[in-house]
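Service request form, structural biology core

Requester: graduate student, group of Dr. S.
Request type: structure prediction, single chain
Budget code: on file
Notes: please return the result as structure tokens.

Sequence provided:
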Amino acid sequence: MALSAHGIAAQLPAGLEGRIFVRQQVGEEITRPVAQFATFPIPEGIGDFGGNTDVNLGPSDIFAVLFEYGPESVGRALFAEQGVPTGLTPEDFHPYVMRPGVGGTLGIQRFFTASGRPFTFYARLGSTQQKNALVAKVNQLLGNLNIQPLTSSSSDQPSVSPAS
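Core staff response, request fulfilled:
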């Protein structure tokens, strides 16, 4: 299944679903594209980084987010890594990346710039016991992401797909 919106495209590995959207603006805030991916149905109304999805995260699940920051972040040290992260290893995932109280899970957060756009990639693994297989699925997802320079012709329509 392929998703594409807002200059972000993803060919989803089997078993993953996803959506790419820009959250509705509240007040004066500026909202940017967000892509969420999971091996379970993504609940409506969750936060950009998937707050409250922990109840859905089983031992064989992953939840991942690609979150875009504003153009003022381009060139900052935090976003110095160029290109979508690849080749993650199980050792790159740590329990301390998770919020307190989310036991038995591992997470990663990587900041980078791709096509002149600053992002963070955040992922949670549902268990430490299955981390090798789960990291392989995360790497498959990352290898299938394509980020284009943002132009005025980029689609403003959200893209959603069900799990395969």
